[in-house]
Amino acid sequence: MTADLDPDEFRRAGYAFVDWVAEHRAALPGLPVVPPVRPGEVAAALSGPGAAFADGLLPEAPQPLATLLDEVERVVVPGSTHWQHPAFFGYFPANASLASVLGDLLSGGLGAQGMLWSTSPAATETEQVLLDGFARALGLGEAFTFPGGGGGVIQDSASSAALVALLAALQRADPRWQESGVDGRERVYVTAETHSSLTKAVRVAGMGARALRVVAAVPGTQAMSAAALADAVAADVAAGLRPVLVCATVGTTGTGAVDPVRDIAAVTAAHGAWLHVDAAWAGVAGLCPELRHVLDGAGLADSFCTDAHKWLLTAFDASLLWVRDAAALPAALSVTPEYLRNAASESGAVVDLRDWQVPLGRRFRALKLWAVVHAAGLEGLRAHLRGHVAAAVALAARVRAEPGVVLAAPPTLGLVCLRCVTADGGPDDAATRAVLERVNASGAAFVTHTVVDGRYVLRIAVGGVVTEAAHVEALWEQVRREAAAVRGPSTSSH
Length: 494
Ligand code: PLP
What we know:
11 strands; Aspartate Aminotransferase, domain 1; 7-stranded mixed β-sheet; binds pyridoxal-5'-phosphate; 494 residues; alpha/beta; Aspartate Aminotransferase, domain 2; disordered C terminus
């Protein structure tokens, strides 16, 4: 006897769940972006007397699914940070468009496990076709498509993409790596602004922190200096070390800095190191011809990653990774026990995407990306990106015109970084922090911070699914007001 709903029960409950999501999204603008929740409060509400997990125990008896919605309404919504709120400007966006939610429903409904081509041919080939199409739409070049000898794969995250790129790089640098592991001479090149996932990838690969070389930035910027990279690589080679991978970032997490990929590619080409381009947030901008300049040189990389789950309307997780050599990831990652052997794989005519990632199992993620492309078309995707870039340009102009506030870095696409300054123009960390805290405590909007050259910076990342120019304008009014309020004679400065 099945413990599951039958299709008719699913249909009835499904309507209620879809109605709930629709109503929740419609109600979002009236909710605080960040809830005033104390640690342990959600857990206590779930495990208190009469709650879903009373005394911390799972229920013995089945419950009607409708009561789950009651609990979500009672406990989960008030305990959630609302990433889909139009005034969410923190970190980078995590777009979960309703179209992608429906695509995810199809994926769950099919319930296919696409580890091998043969375990679900459609899951693999849909992903291949979509990623080929995106490689073309982004202007990456035919070399990154399957017909061109490369190919793309949907990873869970840009962090996983960086890890598998590193493993492929280790394999290419020394195929004996699979037997003997790293020998301590491998080196990976990043900047101080490179995402922490590279540090993690180096750690996971067992290379140790000594493997990580932090290359200097071009003076006055946060972007990698290709000249400093060339020097670091040459010095390492002379010392008998092995440059394995360089990570160039297009749109760093802190300030949106863009490393000079083309110049970096010239260095990696000279030394044979793998070039990974991490464009997790900014890469999707390449869909717009007028913004594609941020991807200059990306076509020269060995691997390129951009997240559809950040700014491209697709619910987490959908990190798009391309490699120019379709054999590179399988060479590093393929392990084939008897129970996975099958005629299709052995024919060599198919791609088994399990060999392009760390886990064996994989979901049919392409369906939610397809749903997004289907609903928006490339035109709709471009309009989504352009609207945010225009709002960020207008915001940056407001910052430039405002006394007491300055841009802390050149704006990139939808990201604007600012800080408060003292009367003599110096950074006022205390005031900047106070503005951020006041904005976030209000519940009306949410922004996050970074530190650049040791000084506090407020980041405004414009990019929510339903974020429009008016929301950015309202945030600016609030920032301006709070900055004026904290800039009193009593405000301490440096
Ligand atoms: N790389 C960059 C430049 C990022 O900004 C981020 C996240 O913000 C990541 C990598 C990690 O992304 P993910 O959450 O997909 O692992």
